[in-house]
Write a structure and sequence with these properties.
The chain has 138 residues and is of the alpha+beta class. 43% of the residues lie in helices and 20% in strands. The relative contact order is 0.24. Belongs to the NDK family.
Length: 138
């Protein structure tokens, strides 16, 4: 079984969409391994998005992700990373297909409700920023 790392962004909590989004993952057969609500420190968000440092949207993204609480989640299932990415949809909600989380619910490219890892390598890097080994063991 593969695992995927997901962050439900501050707007997801503000708009009361957490339950709906988690329900979509569970209905797809993904199992929640770990879940916690937290306010992220700036340095952890900067580490998460380090590949975007210097880009025009970077500061706005970091400010947004540290503006309020988020839900950090690890799910597990067959081909979990690809399944989650397909369910999430394109980064820009305008380009996201109907039926995807962003296509149905997101309002803006930066405020697109959800972050999901895109490869096994990004999973390993990202999950270690927010969860320790004890939290991820069964």
């Amino acid at each position: 079984m593969e695992r995927s790392f997901i962050i439900l962004k501050p707007s997801c909590l503000k708009r009361a969409l957490v339950g709906e989004i988690i329900s979509r993952f569970e209905k797809k057969g993904l199992r929640i391994v770990q879940l916690k609500v937290a306010r992220l420190p700036r340095e952890k968000v900067e580490e998460l998005y380090q590949q975007h440092a210097g880009k025009p949207f970077y500061e706005r993204l970091v400010d947004f992700m540290t503006s309020d609480r988020v839900v950090l989640m690890v799910v597990e299932g067959r081909n979990a990373i690809d399944v989650v990415r397909r369910m999430v949809g394109a980064t820009d909600p305008v380009e996201a297909n109907p039926g995807t989380i962003r296509g149905d619910l997101a309002l803006d490219k930066t405020d697109n409700l959800i972050h999901a890892c895109d490869s096994p390598e990004s999973y390993e890097r990202e999950v270690r920023i927010f969860f320790d080994e004890r939290e991820l063991s069964e």
